[in-house]
TrEMBL record:
GO terms for biological process: inositol biosynthetic process; phospholipid biosynthetic process. This is Inositol-3-phosphate synthase. Gene3D superfamilies: NAD(P)-binding Rossmann-like Domain (3.40.50.720). It is found in: Cytoplasm. It comes from Naegleria gruberi.
Amino acid sequence: MPSKKITVKSSNLKETTETFQSKYVYRYNKTESKTVGDAVELVVEPKTVNLEFKTEKKIGRVGAMLVGWGGNNGSTLTAGILANKKKLQWETKEGVQSANWYGSITQSATMHMGGQHYAALKDVVPMVSPDDLFIDGWDISDLDIYASCRRAKVLDIEIQKSLEEELKQFKPRPAIYDADFIAANQNDRANNLVKATHRFEQMEQIRSDIRDFKQKNQLDKVIVLWTANTERFCKVSENLNSTAKELMESIKNNESEVSPSTLYCVASILEGCSYLNGSPQNTFVPGVVELAQQHGVFIGGDDFKSGQTKIKSVLADFLVGAGLKLASIASYNHLGNNDGKNLSSPLQFRSKEVSKQSVVDDMVLSNDILYPNKQSDAPDHCIVIKYVPYVGDSKRALDEYISEIFMGGKNTIVLHNTCEDSLLATPLMLDLVVLTELMERVTFKEISSVEQEFSSADCKEFRKMDAVMSILSYLFKAPLVNPNAPVINALFKQRAAIENILRALIAIPPENDMLLEYKLPLH
């Protein structure tokens, strides 16, 4: 491909160079650049890298272990899998209802395959069926999963009664409990705890539980997913958790700032099990990321993106993309489930606030016309979450978006959203497990003869994708990405990334919306 001359306005040549290198995979030739006023004229050469993907078709026996199994999300997922496997039907005042996976992109969404043809995501490449999943997990409460469903009050009572005998067979394993990391109001349900008090012993118990589950069910792989309470942020510092070695030493020394979620994650990595974080705390300290990369184990997070944040990422993308300056976002929530109860504590709420606030960052960074100063011009962003027990799992969300428009005008959009929290989150949990399991069967190698981006030693054999699973960004509020990668929060770009990776696995070019064939004259 020919060189392309791009003029960019910048006072910092180094910053501009790094942006082009990381965002566009261009090779930048410094000898062909010059400064013109306050602009830097760059000559960039598009670089083509040919990759060969290999997807193992045999899925094997797959298990999912849930941290917080007896909570609203964990109990609802378990009941949902059983209900769909049994093709359950039940009657409500609206009529006969049937079990489904609405809200799951792998099970209920389609992607464009060319022309007017669409296919379910689950049919593009072999994916594990929800019917075939084995479920286990841990919880600080000793209630069986049937009793947990009763306590959660998420599913219709007829569904619960129909699944009673099966659900009673599921009993959570004792969980790690540290009152310093979750709200004090969770104390009353903490009666099913790992006996060990030393962090290293607790981690070893989790490893033993994973091996036990795997052996008893003759599983080929286990994926661990955190769906427990939000923790407060843990400290991140040198000599504590900034490297894998420091983190392992801190666990052996029973360091109090190693959170329970990090212990579960380290245990999973050491057992070769992918780990997914469905809450907003900083489980993935630098030492965890390094440990995952050393062991070639996938990690993904943070915090399920089920309702209000999905809408926020769409609206922010729409407004900024339309050239309107989004200036203020005010988000108010109230809910009455145990998540809301835990988040009524300030430290745990702060973890949630951080994950919700970052959702518009990449849109702001993308437009230096609307936001010339990224710090002072960034939108005001206020988030409020209140605990109202009466509304239970039915969360209310009120959002106000104020934008600056043409000639000093203002545009205000106000939304009210009532959503059943766990019924939105549960299909996401399934998607996370299904997509992670798929990516564990995907390997690639570079087959290009042009200048190599990877070292020649790395290109000889097929290898797995990077340990940090940014492909899951569509499903997480605060998507974890490789330190060298940009964070993408715009929802449809995240969705397109999943589709295009699936297309790559079957050697179909990435989708684009030019529709050039319909825009050119026929003669």
